[in-house]
Write a structure and sequence with these properties.
5-stranded mixed β-sheet; two-stranded antiparallel ribbon; alpha+beta; 40% strand
Length: 102
């Protein structure tokens, strides 16, 4: 299993059921050293920006996903995002989607 840290639409039950055919199992987590960005992917969807300041944080959920479900999440997020490894305040390593800058 992999962990995916989410802070937006992937927390919605309807999205999870449509995309993964199940409600995801997860826990509330904190991503330190990041803030929600004022930038929006496609002018609408939130993203996070790295600040390197441990006082900055984003509250979200870390869900357990299979490798296949992670690929489905990649397809759902599309070309506006890219997946990065992050370490959560709990010490768990997870993936998180961030705005693609290229």
């Amino acid at each position: 299993m992999e962990y995916l840290f989410t802070y937006g639409t992937l927390q919605e039950n309807e999205i999870q059921l449509n995309l993964f055919k199940r409600k995801l199992k997860g826990n509330k987590e904190i991503l330190k050293g990041y803030l929600l960005s004022k930038n929006r992917v496609y002018g609408r969807y939130p993203t996070v920006s790295k600040t390197h300041d441990t006082l900055d944080s984003v509250v979200g959920m870390a869900y357990e996903l299979t490798p296949l479900e992670l690929k489905k999440a990649d397809a759902y997020e599309g070309k506006g995002y890219e997946r990065h490894r992050v370490v959560l305040a709990s010490g768990k390593t997870a993936w998180a989607f961030m705005e693609r800058l290229d």
